[in-house]
Amino acid sequence: MNVIEITHYSDELLEAINDLLSQLSSSALLLSPTDLREIIQSKSSRLLMAKKDGQYYGSLTLAIFKIPTGTRAWVEDVVVNKSARGKGVGKMLLECAVSMAKEAGAKTIDLTSRPSREAANALYRKAGFELRETNVYRYKNT
Q1: In what order do the strands lie in the sheet with 2-5?
Q2: Nearest in space to 111 (alpha carbons), one of 77, 86, 138
Q3: Which of 3, 21, 39, 62 has the highest CB neighbour count under 10 A?
Q4: Cβ neighbourhood burial of 14 (10 Å; 0-12, 13-18, 19+)
């Protein structure tokens, strides 16, 4: 199993990412070819996928951005295929994301996870992320 940064679009990749997204959230919308191309071409985010023998087993999106207080990174949409959970795929994805963020000079790497996702929260702690006492606010543009 290896983690790769996705730099080119393919229909196979679109199918794989949509399958993973459906496992992440029942409310996740399927990506269109245009959506996926925009994500791949974005200068502020990197799409990482865990792949073995032509099959995709997990994905993670890493956003890296510069703000007045320094370069920051944010991890989003971490998902591992049900068939590969508990086998180190999530850890590999996170290690790659942390390495990329450090190379880019990020002072911090943040992520969020619902408390009910016990396995995910255990993974994040095991990977060196610390629980912060903070409020997360969301504005929904409806």
Answers
A1: 2-5, 45-52, 55-67, 70-80, 108-110
A2: 77
A3: 62
A4: middle
